[in-house]
Amino acid sequence: MSRPFGYFVHHQGRGHAERCAAILNALPPERPVTIFCARDDIFPALPPHVERIVIPSLFEPTGMEATGMDMVPTPDTLHCAPLGWPGIRHAMAVIARWFDTANPALMICDVSAEIAQLARICSVPHVKILQHGDRGDPGHRAAYDGAAGLLAAFDEALAQPEWDAAMRAKTCFAGGLGVDTRVPERELARQRIGVGADEEMILVLSGGGGGGFAQAPLGVGARSRPGARWITIGPIVRDWHATEPGNIEHRGWVDNAADHVAAADLVIASTGNTTCQQVLAAARPWLAIPEWRYFDEQHRKAEALVAAGVACVRPHLPSSAQAWTAALAETLGQHRPAIQRAMIADSPAQMAADWLEALAHRLWPIEPAPLSPSIGAHS
């Protein structure tokens, strides 16, 4: 049997679990995989040879944490490593114990700089998922520089300018990874979501990683373009002072987001990874509004989207009818569908799986002999 892969999955949002499942379903069946995650209910269908181990969250307190240690500063090489948290201690112990007993070929980290560094300290080669953002700090650099490889769930055209040639050389760029990028036919999608063939439809899409867009500015936008049908999916933050017209409809969470994107004449959405890949695959005019994330992840991704010419960006939702009119006109005027479609690989999950397999074979060209029972024994 092949040496196993380990896979840490961050449980915030949906993108981490979705790309994990996509990769694992593309790996050869003889490659066993063990997933470590704080939740086991966020994954799409996984192959039968995958083991899931639930570990405590690395950043959510349980009430058992010690108090009085916060005056000890966190070193620059770490991001979230509070002292006196038994949950973190247990999670790290579970992973380290698995490293010792499973003798893995690779540990894939999506995402945690601390677990990436734990793998390196435990002499396990790791692959770090590469994300946008201001990540030149010592913690991220240690995770990236110490990685055997980097995996990016986006096209290389969206790379940040400071990622040098050495960093790109060890990166697998797989645009569309973890997202079903099959685009429904527009007319069929409109029939399925109840939108007329001749209606102008503006879609507002909020993903699962944040709280959603505010209601009031969307009402201003809908009033500024009364001939369009505005539909929102995902969470919306209710504003008591919002004055909404009749051409906006809030549908909340839906199971057919791809149909809504395919049906839209224009999409307003943040720059989370799943959202990005869906909009780019559908090649729709996109007004991108980055949300707050650690390390300015979405803002740096928005900069990359603008540089690549695949989205119009505003730092926040327009705040007046005039600002909405200008933003929508710019979004439609700068639309470049061919460049958007080129951002999505034909088979990104298979590309990533093949790259991981090739990396593992380069790292372990000859299987090491089993450790002698005498090693580490005391006489």
Note the overall shape. globular
What's the end-to-end separation, in Å?
33 Å
- The percent of residues in helical segments reads 25-40%
Alpha carbon gyration radius: 23 Å
Strand content: 15-25%
Average pLDDT: 94
Secondary-structure element order, N to C: EHEEHEHEHEHEHEEHEEEHEHEHEHHH
Low-confidence stretches: 374-379
Tell me the total number of β-strands. 15
Q: Main beta sheet: strand number and arrangement?
A: 7 strands, parallel
How does this structure look, described?
With 379 residues, the protein is α/β, with parallel strands linked by helices. 35% of the residues lie in helices and 16% in strands. It has helices at residues 15-26, 86-102, 113-121, 138-145, 165-169, 186-193, 215-224, 257-263, 273-282, 297-308, 321-333, 337-342, 348-363, and strands at residues 5-9, 33-37, 50-54, 106-110, 126-130, 149-152, 171-173, 200-205, 213-214, 228-233, 236-237, 248-250, 266-269, 286-288, 312-313. A seven-stranded parallel beta sheet has the order 3-2-1-4-5-6-7, with helices on both faces. A six-stranded parallel beta sheet has the order 12-10-8-13-14-15, with helices on both faces.
Structure at a glance:
The protein is of the alpha/beta class. Helices cover about 35% and strands about 15% of the residues. The strands form three sheets. A seven-stranded parallel beta sheet has the order 3-2-1-4-5-6-7, sandwiched between helices. It has a six-stranded parallel beta sheet with strand order 12-10-8-13-14-15, with helices on both faces.
